[in-house]
Amino acid sequence: MRHFIHLVDFTTSELANLLDLAAKLKADLLRGLRPALLPGKVLGLIFEKPSLRTRVSFEAAMAQVGGSSIFLSSTDGPIDARESIPDQARTLSQFVDALVLRTFAHKTIEEFAEFASVPVINGLSDYNHPCQALADVLTIQEAFGDLHGRTVTFVGDGNNVARSLAIACGRFGMNFILAAPKDYGFPDQFLATFRENFDGKTPVHITNPAEAVSSADVIYTDVWTSMGQEAESKARTEAFQGFQVDETLMAKAAPHAKFLHCLPAHRGEEVSAGVADGPQSLIFAQAGNRMHAQKAILVSLLGGKI
Predict the structure, then answer these.
(1) For residue 306, is it within any domain?
(2) Pick the catalytic residue: 205, 261, 262, 286?
(3) In the annotation, is 6 catalytic?
(4) Annotation says 94 is catalytic
């Protein structure tokens, strides 16, 4: 049994296999094929945070491979409220074949995985977002083919999405640049993890967004204030002035550069409407790839017959 919590737990070869499987399952769907790879399997989804893409993409993914899912919101099955996390993990493992957790604290997912007897998938935590990163790399691969040597510039703070994307870039030989104000870089804990996995190297952090995107094949951004950071909204809005991905910033990159955003997007804040809805934007294909990447994860973890 294996969990999907950190991308650093997977080798480049293993992640490449997941990408290949995701691409195959996507191609099958476009041909009208929905092979029942996980018949009778049940996926449990436990969400502390509200969700559009994560919930629907996982439920659709499971349905398309022949399984079913059960959703528990924070009101249905609050984590560590009526009973302990170890008891919840052991109990739910009796009912479902895998669990997806979307939580505030990353330690919640790690504790669940410690006591669960079924695979646990990180649907998002305050530390990282590995499912999103796998979908991102699938989108980049579709756009450019070969991944090695490509440059991805993330314009925003060193948040959970940026951390997983940086690891994914490292695994596939892509250059990663973080464009963020001085005080919004990666935390020390993450930098130590990155150094351990990539021969002492650390991701590049540039405080000038125009400089940071000059060599980019992909320009990526996220909201400036994530769920749970609402009290910091005013300070963050002030700190990120000049970091909006607009037409002027996109023009600093090569004409072939693509724009990505994990969504939801706040047009007029971290991205202009002209970029989000423009010809270089792949944000909705990227959103769709969440489902295909997650199908690959589910089939791999649950031993589906390809």
Answers:
(1) no
(2) 262
(3) no
(4) no
User: Is the pLDDT at 79 greater than 90, yes or no?
Assistant: no
Tens of pLDDT, residue by residue over 131-169, are 999 999 999 999 999 999 999 999 999 999 999 999 999
Are the C-beta atoms of 135 and 116 separated by less than 8 Å? no
Q: From the DSSP assignment, how many helices (H) and strands (E) are in the chain?
A: 12, 9
- Which is catalytic among the residues 102, 163, 205, 292? 102
Q: Which domain holds residue 110?
A: 7-129+290-301
Residue 3 among the catalytic residues = no
Q: Does residue 55 belong to any structural domain of this protein?
A: yes
How many domains does the chain contain in total?
2
Type of residue found at 209: P
For this structure, is 244 an active site residue?
A: no
Dist CA 31 CA 6 (whole Å): 32
Which tokens sit at 16?
A: 């490449």
Could you tell me how far CA 286 lies from the centroid of its own chain?
10
Do 260 and 145 have their domain in common? Answer: yes
**226 falls within a domain:** yes
Give residues with Cβ within 8 angstroms of 92, minimum separation 6.
44, 46, 99, 116, 118
Same domain, yes or no, for 158 and 277? yes
CATH number of the domain at 189, please.
3.40.50.1370
Q: Report the amino acid identity of residue 131.
A: C
Q: One of 6, 129, 171, 205 is an active-site residue; which one?
A: 129
Segment 256-269, tens digit of pLDDT: 999 999 999 999 99
pTM over 0.85: yes
Active-site residue, 262 included: yes
**Known catalytic membership, residue 102:** yes
Q: Give the H/E segment covering residue 204.
A: strand 204-206
Q: Is 261 helix (H, G, I), strand (E, B) or coil?
A: strand
Locus of tokens 């769920």: 227
